[in-house]
Amino acid sequence: MDKKLVPVLFAATIVLLGGCMSYMSDPIGPKPEFKASLAGANEVPPVPSAGYGVMEARYMPTMKTLEWRIYFGNLSGPVTWAYLLGPDGAGNEDATQVPINQSFDGNIQDGSVTLTEQQAADLMAGKWSVELRTAQYPNGEVRGLLLPASVPVLLR
Asked: pLDDT per residue over 54-71, tens digit each?
């Protein structure tokens, strides 16, 4: 083999091997997706709200990140507070796990959060819900249980 070719082949090998390494992110392919239908009838106790909504969410296990988009309408007023609710490990099955305190301009809200191992397990087990609150319904106007989506979620 020509000695001039050895450095070129060595450099080409390094470039090819470098291309085989990848950033540790979530693998390509399906991620667990969830959907919640929000209604006043889902509140505890139920409320007579005409409000409605949908939350679509996707969990990325490697990054332990849950991202979501909430669509809502016909609420009694502006959203004053919103939460993802679930077990707290101390007997309360309806505890605030993730406050959704970003501004609610319009009727669509996007967000994301990094979950603990236990929060992710509870989410995957169907133990999480989402709730939107307003001034007229300070304990919750619409709520929905986050369940595995039967059709693909389109977040953005």
From this structure: 999 999 998 999 999 999
